[in-house]
Write the structure tokens for this entry.
Amino acid sequence: MRRFRVGRWLPPAALIAVLLCCWEVAVRVFAVPAYILPPPSSIVRAFGEVRPLLGEHIATTGTEALVGIAIGALAGVTLAVAVWAVPWFRRLTYPLLVASQTIPMVVLAPLLVLWFGFGLTPKIVVVALIALFPVAISTAQGLAGADDEQIDLLRSMGAQRRDILRLVLIPSATPAFFSGLRIASAYAIAGAVIGEWVGASSGLGLFLTRSQASFRVDRVFVGVAVIVVLSVALFGAVDLLARLAAPWQHAQRTRRKERT
């Protein structure tokens, strides 16, 4: 298992290292100005300069992302259950859900800041709205894909609604729920940053805005790198949680990989 993990992560790590080396060499060979594209070595030095400042910004953005994705996931599951249980509610809300995804968050974020101020609330709302759609759609599909024969069998044996929910519906919807949550986690940090970009007193979005205003492109790249690391870490945490919550699905994938 350990060899498999190393073999899976080694190629992309090697590719990133090669790209960084090519970036460093190309910037120095072609004498690209640092205010246009700084070399990776300058970005590392800039990280050392701003490292004492990043802790507060990371904590703010991370809090917004975690709280927002939790609220969005809870709302998404609630909406999915309503959509699955009430057909007319599905016909009523499904087009609205799809239409809501056509509104760019860059356009919506200023309105949320205007309505809720410059605190954590508008950023949490942005992340929650980002998480709502994939979680709701995926969970609804998971509930709809439950085995009807198992449900009928349990009913014939006198099972109550809560028994059907525990034995059939939740196991059926759990993998789908985490599929939607993975998608939401990949965009949660970026959603929080978008909200901070419009207006905030702390956060990585504010850090990027100040770095851009002072023409410190190297610090902008530092902010981007931190956002990438946080997004990957959040995605990995959700993936680990999915494996713990649905171990049977991970076991099935492992067996399929071993066969191939």
